[in-house]
Amino acid sequence: MGSTENKGLRGVKAATTHISMVDGEAGKLLYRGYTIEDLARYSSFEEVAYLLIHGRLPRRQELEDFSQDLIAHRRVPSALIASLDMLPLDTPPMAILQAGVALISGYDPERFDESREANQRKAMRTIAVMPTIIAAWKRLVNNQGSVEPRDDLSHAANFLYMTRGREFREEAVRFMDVAMILHADHTFNASTFATRVVASTGADLYSSIAAGIGALSGPLHGGANAQVMRNLLDTKDPESVEAWVEDQFKRGKRVSGMGHAVYKTIDPRARILQYMAKQITTDHPEYRWYEMTERMAIATQKEFLKKKGRQIYPNVDLYSASIYHAMGIHHDFFPAVFAMARSAGWCAHILEEKFPEPPVRPALYRPSSVYVGKVDQEYIPIDER
Fold first, then answer.
1. Catalytic residue among 260, 325, 331, 349
2. I need a labelling partner for 25 at 20 to 30 A (CA). Which of 72, 119, 155, 357 fits?
3. Confidence category of residue 5, pLDDT binned at 50, 70, 90
4. Among residues 267, 317, 331, 349, which one is catalytic?
């Protein structure tokens, strides 16, 4: 028998991929061979989505066509929007998004076509429609009328516009665009692996994406950035941060936004988000959240070194919290915004699972387990128990 320790498949190489690579020791992240720093500096979310799904950077006309296709499929069927009115307003946004993606499959004219080309178009439609579902639910929860998508705005700009009913300043739009690029993929994380497992059964793209949303909704995965913001709100005062962190360690609790299962140094996405968080909150009433975030990181590193004898570093969730908060997005919606960006990576992985490059062939995931339960139990009839 093998080891009985549950390690969450850490260190197990489940499959090969061409999509992204994480070098945890060096703190590097690549999408299709391009560094996350270069993509964040020079690219757009639309271009990165094309890169992930099609395997290469688009030419100018290809990017224009892809962007126009995204715009053309932003609108959600009125029947689906009407169904949201029937749900309790405290329904979690991730549950709304998961149900919405599953339901939207019924409106896809190619839902029974499993060719590579049809799945690429389904991927585009999924990426296009998720921001609209999130924005519609956000406004409904706040007792506001839904806002129709605009055809003259980028993917990031249109999402922000639909949430507030007005355009955001250019800097905020660019920061949202970059944040989506940074969240677009991250190899075999829990939600991406979930989408690949479901896709390996032959299930359609929408079912696979719904599985990914479910996995991302957990507090140890996509819910971590929401918890960062809750911690900041609970702490309230920058002067209270150090005492709050110390209390967390005394109670054996984790500090969300710190540490990573893969990176042994600072998450490269966190470096970029750190700069953005400072820029978007400077000369802004929300600056204290950035100040508190920095103090939380320093205090956590100090306590961790004292208690564990080693260093701990910020991850992608730490700084994304104050950025989204400054944009007027409630923390309950942070995981849904994460999913909106990660949809590009999920779709790419589903396509790779369904249509792997030779000599790799599709294979149903079926891991084994180590049974540690009882054996040779004697069955006792119900009336004798």
1. 260
2. 357
3. low
4. 317
Catalytic status, residue 331: no
Residue in the block written with tokens 């076509």? 113
- Residue 152 forms part of a structural domain: yes
Domain check: are 233 and 154 in the same one?
no
Q: What are the beta bridge partners of residue 34?
A: 31
Confidence of residue 4 (pLDDT cuts 50, 70, 90): low
Cis peptide leading into residue 367 (ω within 30°): no
- 221 as an active site residue: the answer is yes
54 given a catalytic annotation: no
Integer Cα distance of 300 and 241 in angstroms? 10
* Residue 218 shares a structural domain with residue 229: no
Q: Could you say which of 54, 221, 330, 332 is catalytic?
A: 221
pLDDT tens-digit map of 12-22: 888 999 999 99
Q: Dump pLDDT digits (tens) for 82-131.
A: 888 899 999 999 999 999 999 999 999 999 999 999 999 999 999 999 99
**Cα-flanking dihedrals φ and ψ of residue 314, to 5°?**
-65, 150
- d(CA 49, CA 358) in angstroms, rounded, equals 23
Phi, psi for residue 183 in degrees, rounded to 5: -95, 0
CB contact at 8 A, 90 and 137: no
Indicate whether 367 belongs to any domain.
Answer: no
pLDDT recorded at residue 12: 84
Residue 126 belongs to a domain: yes
Range of the domain at 135: 20-223+331-354
Per-residue tokens: 322: 């104050």
pLDDT at 1 over 50: no
